[in-house]
Write a structure and sequence with these properties.
By secondary structure, the protein is mainly alpha-helical. It has ten helices and seven strands. It has a three-stranded antiparallel sheet with strand order 1-2-3. A two-stranded antiparallel ribbon has the order 4-5. The chain has a two-stranded antiparallel sheet with strand order 6-7.
Length: 238
């Protein structure tokens, strides 16, 4: 749209548009650089070649030709364009295609329940049993793991299967759900404390009843023995 645009003019436009945004930072003595304060940390960007990427137009005729290739590998590199991308413009750029693909990915994620396995490299030497604390914490922070833990702790850090929860806390007779139980921070400790109090009270009752039973049984046995001795003595002296 703007053939005379340069990385400097692009950066100046960013400076003017986002100068008050809390996530946007302009480095000192920088003409084309900018910093985005992501949740995991600040990331430094350089605007060089930003405009060149958006000039990489894809002609629909070329797209149709390559997507119809008999070579499955080539055809897979050029899937058909999204209909919405062809309605607004005759040409499609790499940036617009990426935006469409990102939107499709978000729709897929929102309609499913994805699970992730986060791999952390313990050291740069690729040796076993060697952990570089700074390296590991860096990966956890910029991978969003620490933020995910913080969010989890602020919300419902404890989630238990319904059957397991009932087996452990059923004696408290709680009114809960049917399949899963989510607990906020501190609730599990509070339930464990109440469970311990309940068990302690029950143990005291059982001990009291057991002692009463044993003492009464012993008393009745001694009473019966005394009656038997008294009867025997009467028989001997009469």
């Amino acid at each position: 749209m703007f053939p005379k645009s340069t990385p400097d003019t692009f950066s100046q436009k960013l400076y003017q548009t986002f100068q008050t945004h809390r996530r946007f930072i302009k480095p000192k003595l920088a003409r084309s650089d900018f910093i985005i304060a992501h949740y995991a940390g600040e990331v430094h960007y350089q605007s060089d070649q930003f405009l060149d990427k958006n000039k990489d137009y894809i002609v629909p005729e070329h797209q149709d030709l390559l997507s119809a290739s008999k070579c499955s590998f080539v055809a897979g590199l050029f899937p058909p364009l999204h209909q919405d991308a062809t309605k607004h413009s005759k040409f499609s750029s790499i940036g617009s295609r990426f935006k469409v693909q990102l939107q499709q990915l978000m729709e897929t994620l929102n309609s499913t329940q994805p699970h992730y396995i986060r791999c952390v490299k313990p050291n740069n030497l690729l040796k076993p049993a060697v952990f570089e604390n700074v390296n590991v914490i860096h990966q956890l922070r910029y991978g969003g793991v620490l933020e995910a833990i913080r969010i989890s702790c602020a919300g419902y850090p404890t989630n238990k299967n319904f059957t397991d929860f009932i087996n452990r806390f059923g004696l408290l007779d709680p009114e809960i759900g049917k399949t899963k139980v989510f607990l906020r921070a501190g609730h599990m400790a509070a339930l464990d404390a109440r469970r311990a109090e309940k068990i302690t009270a029950s143990v005291i009752v059982i001990q009291r009843m057991t002692r009463s039973y044993l003492i009464r049984k012993r008393f009745l046995a001694m009473a019966n023995l005394a009656v038997a001795l008294q009867t025997l003595c009467r028989d001997l002296f009469t």
